[in-house]
Amino acid sequence: MVPVLGRYAGLLTVALIGLVVFGPLAVFLPLWSSLTLGAVAAAASGLALARIKTLTERCEKLSGEVDLLSRRLLKVETTGAKPTPGSGEAALRAQIEELTVEFGLLSGIVRDLTTVVSTQDTEIASFKARPEPAPPPRTAAAPIPAVVPPPPAAVARQPAAFQPPDVQPPAPAPPVFEPPVPARPIPPRPVPPGPIQTRPIQTRPIPPRPARDPASEAEIIRAFEEDGLEIHLQPVVSLPQRKVVAYEALARLRIGDLGPAAPAEPEAFLPVLERYGRTTELDRRMLQRASLVVRHLARRGSDTLLTYSLSPLSLFEPGLLRELGRTVAEDPSLAGLVIALPQASWRGLDAGQRGLLMPLRGRIGFSLDRPDDLRFDAVELAALGIGQVRVPAAMLLRPQAGGSLSDIAVEDTGPALARAGIRLVATGVGDEADIPDLIDLDVPFAQGVVFAAPRPVRAEVLTAPPETPAPPTEPAPERRPFRSVLRRAV
After folding, report:
1. 418 vs 18, residue with greater confidence
2. E strand spans, 151-309
3. What sign has the CA pseudo-torsion 397, 403, 408, 409?
4. How far is CA 271 from CA 120, 220, 232, 258, in A?
5. Domains in the chain and their CATH numbers?
6. pTM recorded for the entire structure
7. Alpha carbon distance 278, 272 (integer Å)
8. DSSP calls for 53-88
9. Which of 276, 297, 321, 334 could form a disulfide with 356 if both were Cys (CB 3.0 to 4.6 A apart)?
């Protein structure tokens, strides 16, 4: 009732005013009241006709717009119903994957360029920040003539025993000259902001710069090029049974004069290979040999897995991952191969790297290696296809020492990963006393020298040709005794 009165309140008010005013007027002046009512009615009719005309125009305009929209909708439905060549779902996915890979490659190139420019700016700023050497102390007995101090580069090239003329060396002769008041270092110049730095991107890791020894580096490169690379296997056992369930493929390099029984470990040659950009070739050669070992295990009917830790720099080489994808697609026996990547690499995957890794999912296994902390999201790891997490035993037994505490207790890490189908492997176990503690933490698998040291693969495994199935032979005729032939004849 109230909304109706509110809507027609104006009309009711006018009607009441007209009744109050024209009621007495109609009694005393009927002619004037009739004229007034006629004029009011005419004005009201004019307003109604104008409003009706306006509403009619609006309805016609709205009807035209609805007609236009219906025509467009009909055109869209007709166009969508017609099949277009090459519009299949498979072709669309292939185009999207190709574009994703190309964008990943372009982003990797831009990241490399940004990293190189930033490194150059930092080195230039460090050169500018070197303080100028102060003049050496002078003695009061011998006057010193005015000598122009040499530039910093010349001072750096002077031998330690060199002394300027007419100058007595100080009593405590330090091995390296240090000025008493060093100049204030100039802060490094920041890289100018650009469209690339507006979003967080994964920068390509820069390999560490080892102490350069040209002779040793040349020897390492020569040994690497002369096929001095070897593959060693270290078993992974189950706890507490200590049954071998998997192996890890480790790279070893025989360098020059080290002798036949002393191959170098990755800590000795891997920084040099990273410096010379040979890590992708190292991973390619190791994956080829690991594939031979996996095929050998498959021929023997063994279901043990073989894990190989891929270098983080190989993620920026799409050719290696594409080649690996073609290999595993052609050979289903490589399902026992597991590729391990560091935790930082899994957390920093971009769209291009995900596009290269996802086709490998389901054909080979993925593993998380070299973790920085124990903050594992089991659901996220399972979504990436990771089926194994390798954690150093020291990080599990002493998490407070390395600052690797997670949101859950350490003893719940293994069960939490197991619920998501991921198995936990404790690596680097070197003490027999640590095994009971690992069993108490519900760690199902372990690896280390306490179980077995890495051993080289036999040469016949790596050089054996692929086995081809023998053609079926016809069964030999069955020999029967002469008595049975006689019985049949009777």
Report:
1. 418
2. 229-238, 244-253, 305-309
3. positive
4. 21, 11, 19, 18
5. 2-61 (no CATH), 214-463 (3.20.20.450)
6. 0.54
7. 9
8. HHHHHHHHHHHHHHHHHHHHHHHHHHHHHSPPTT--
9. 321
